[in-house]
Amino acid sequence: MAAALCRPSSELILDNYGRPAPGARIAFFAPGTSNPLTVYTDGSLTLAQPIPVIADGFGRVPNCFTGVQNYDVRVETADGQALYTLPSLAGAPSNSGSGGTDPVITVAALPTGFMAPAFLSGAQPGWVRANGKTIGPAGSGATELADDSTRALYLALWNGISTLAVLGGRGTSALADWASGKPISVPDARGRTLVGLDGMGNGRANVITGASFSSVEALANVGGFETVALTVDHLAAHDHGTTIEAGGQHTHTVQVDSGGAHDHATSVQPNGDHTHAGVTDLQGQHVHNYQDTTYNTFAATTAGGPGRQDFVGAVRQTDSAGNHQHNFTTDSKGSHTHVVTVQSGGAHTHTAQAQSAGSHTHVVTLAKTGGGAAHGNVQPSMLVTWYIKL
Question: Is residue 185 a contact partner of residue 133, using CB atoms and an 8 Å limit?
Fold first, then answer.
């Protein structure tokens, strides 16, 4: 038979002044009648709850299960004052017409520690949120839920996940810490995706070994990164092929820097001991004029013998040799060099033109770029609240 968890199981009963109602009485009836219904403490419907069901000392209702499809609820204070009625509540689903007797899983049948997502945000009866806060017995000061109804989950977490912190430190056992009122942290699933254990009762799958989990077989262990900064090792080996567009056959004009006003000294290579031979220019047929001085001797006109008297003769010309040249050879100066000084052109530049290599390309080395910032590493997701069954 299918079973369903009844309302107001695990709920806190408040009186008409909004205060908890310790010992409140909860009665169940067939819909629209005063016929009482029996409810049970377990999903197997083996152990009946008292009629009426009594809330604990904090006004919280224990879990109640039913096998009927619909029921009514009437709630009273411990002294019989009526608080409210819940009519025609849905109970266990019917198997009629299903073609079989397959069991129907209900919330009541879920084991302690079971997790479920929901589009809810607040605290829910019979559940606590997987938010990293603490649970513990009433009066423990636990931040998510301080209530005796957390006992089963407290013991399961203490014994099953050794990494969960216990306020005041872990004692000798879960029961000892529960009795001492030490709150224990619940797993923190805030902002995290749930991933199956790498083995989970089978051989290791080895698919999450590189996701920074300290252990891939420990419950509630966390790993992964919100962002990742890539390194060169993450990139595939590759080349950067770049070709600069050819400009066709062309030349490059080069501008030489000026050295200021200056001279250029040049040394001519020596040619050993040598002479320079040449031919004078032709002057055509010509003569050379000269003035002749003639000495004449005369008889003495006085005593003392003969005497001489000079006088200037006539202008005379050499014979013409016709149109001719004169050969000449300079004297040797031995092995020597000739120093040449080029006249300065003042401060100036020299324009040079590089020889064209025809149509061609140039090899280019690419400069580095990029900032090395981390990139987002979160898969497309939808946000929910994760609840843990008490």
Answer: yes
The domain limits of the chain are 1-108, 110-234+372-390
**CA distances to 9, 39, 159, 192 from 154, in Å:** 19, 26, 9, 22
Q: Is the Cβ–Cβ distance between 2 and 67 less than 8 Å?
A: yes
For the structural domain made of 1-108, what CATH number should be given? 2.170.14.10
Give per-10-residue mean pLDDT for the chain (390 aa): 83 87 94 90 89 93 90 93 88 56 48 89 88 96 93 91 95 94 96 88 84 83 83 82 70 68 63 67 65 53 51 61 68 67 67 69 74 80 91
DSSP string, 344-358: P--S--EEEEEPP--
Structure tokens given for 36: 């009482």
Find where tokens 């605290």 sit.
123
pTM of structure: 0.47
